[in-house]
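Appendix C reproduces, verbatim, an entry submitted by the partner laboratory led by Prof. M.T., so that reviewers can inspect both the input and the predicted structure.
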Amino acid sequence: MTQSSTQSNRPVAAIVLAAGKGTRMEGQRPKVAYEVADRSMVEWVTGALQDAGVERILLVVGYGADEVRSLYADASGIEYVMQDEQLGTGHAVLCCQDALEDFEGDLVVLAGDGPLIRSGTIETLLETHRGTGATATLATSVIDDPTGYGRIVRDEAGRFKAIIEHKNASEEVRAIHEVYPSYACFDAVSMMDSLRELPADSVTGEFYLTEVPARLHAAGRIVEVVDAVPPEDVLSINTPTQLAEVDAILRSRNQAPATETSP
């Protein structure tokens, strides 16, 4: 049996990060519960995962956990993991280690506040990950204005080297237009092993998942990058204005009339 066919038979699950408040949203709700095009942000994300064939989804909740849970009152395949203290994306994923103790497969990790994600992007991410036998695979996008996004740094041969956050990037790195919109797939065991050894950021004291691919690469593991995210799908939602923009995009995509979004 070939490596790619072996990989394709591996189980797949997903972690969706949904614990944040969203302090700039001018409301008191958990960020992922705000609606765009008649569905909460996080429901767009979990819906795309399910459409891509991912049947087991772990939702990391924290602020407003009960409200997030209420969105899925009648849903199947959704599990909840509590992140009592928000200590970064790496910490959020590590909170799932007990739930995934016996899981040996591929793990898609997504942000719950990215409702523009498409099932086709997830499918491409999984196909690349499995077809190459990678330990980690990142779906990226090349956009005109990369301000604020983590940049994908490659070596001279074009292979992945690191994700550098905008705030930590040199002028040379900031000139890179290939960004990481927080779509990733990992070998679950390797990712959790790396997270357990991940040091806290010296400034914030938090743990960042974006450090894991570089650590895996440095350890000799295969880290793949695939330009799979359409530029129009890369739009962060941090303000009511951006919420309205994404609402209009999704309604246009689904040809539904736009309505006002409310905090």
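The domain at 3-254 is CATH 3.90.550.10 (Spore Coat Polysaccharide Biosynthesis Protein SpsA; Chain A). Additional entries are available on request from the coordinating office.
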